[in-house]
Amino acid sequence: LETTWESGNHPVKVAPYKARLEISAISCDDLGAKNRDENPMSLGYETVKVTEIGFTGGLEAQDVNQTMTAADPAVKELYCPNNNVWSWNIDPATANDHLVYLEATVDANPFYQVSNAARRIEATKYTKGDADVLNFEAGNIYKMTIPFSESDLDDNRSLSCVDVTVEIATWVVHHITPEC
After folding, report:
1. Distance from C-alpha of 123 to C-alpha of 68, rounded to nearest angstrom
2. Do residues 55 and 89 lie in contact, with contact meaning Cβ atoms separated by under 8 Å?
3. Helices then strands, each counted (H, E), the chain
């Protein structure tokens, strides 16, 4: 994770002092399922538009502006354009005080009273395998997908909390030689 080289008589040490948070996708595997469950009292959502994704605590939110539709069951995941990821470099000392969130609006089935209602989904628990990720550490990249289900969008609440599975990678430091 760190490298040291000699520059004259002065050693220089380079190491990441931040952690990186990367979100590769936003997924809803059961969008429209309530419309197909043969129960006339459970009407599901037709569309979900994810407007932004962010990390609370003053880091700038990033625009998503993509829509999932129940009419197209193949569209169950949203991705950052151009094969990128939504990402932030965070201070690991304060990272646990903040949450990953996404903002979305739902266009409900016509029988619902509420349409185009704002929803917020927060990732409140991070896990890797069977263990909770309790601390973010400098030099690590935390890769994740934000999953939610149609029930997380229910009309009676504007905030839902989800658990997120994290893959942790090491931030690679490249050895360089300064030229004087």
Report:
1. 20
2. no
3. 0, 12
**CA distances from residue 145 to 42, 46, 166, 167 in whole angstroms, order as listed:** 27, 22, 8, 10
Which of 121-141 are b and which e, b meaning 16 or more Cβ less than 10 Å from the residue's Cβ? bbbeebeeeeeebeebebbbb
| Structure tokens that stand for 86 in this block | 């939504």
Residue 129: the pLDDT is 87
* Cβ partners under 8 Å of residue 33, min gap 6: 44, 150
| CA distance readout (Å), 152 to 21, 29, 106, 167 | 23, 12, 11, 23
Q: How far apart are CA 170 and CA 180, in angstroms?
A: 30
Identify each DSSP E strand in 15-134 by its residue range: 19-28, 45-55, 62-69, 77-79, 86-90, 100-108, 117-128, 131-132
Backbone angles phi, psi at 96, to 5 degrees: -70, -10
**CA-CA distance, 173 to 180, in Å (whole number)?**
21
Given a contact cutoff of 8 angstroms between Cβ atoms, the answer to whether 102 and 120 are in contact is yes
List phi, psi (to 5°) of 29: -75, -20
Identify the band that residue 168 occupies on the pLDDT scale cut at 50, 70 and 90.
Answer: very high
In this prediction, residue 85 has a pLDDT band, given cuts at 50, 70 and 90, of very high
Alpha-carbon distance 26 to 146, whole Å?
5
* CB 16 within 8 Å of CB 92: no
Specify the pTM: 0.77
